[in-house]
Fold this sequence. Notes:
The protein has one helix at 11-20; strands spanning 23-30, 33-40, 43-50, 55-58, 61-65, 71-72. It is mostly beta strands and 87 residues long.
Amino acid sequence: MATTRSHNNVKPLTHWVIYRGYQVRFTARREGEVRGVLTTPAGPVEFTYDPAARTIHLPDATLAINEYGWEVSRDNPGSPSLKPTEQ
Length: 87
């Protein structure tokens, strides 16, 4: 009998961070939520990541990403809306 393990998969988030050229520091991991601080050229930015929905919640925006870390349109989740290096 297979057991189900619940975990927060941050691989898509880490791909997104790398594509953007940011650094990340995780501050909390709870069921269904990961929190941390991004180091960006503009300074530190706090974020919350929902691994089930693959959404990154920033102070001024919420971004949806696919399993590869590419930003996607909420209207068409399979279609990239922005290249990862565009800002």
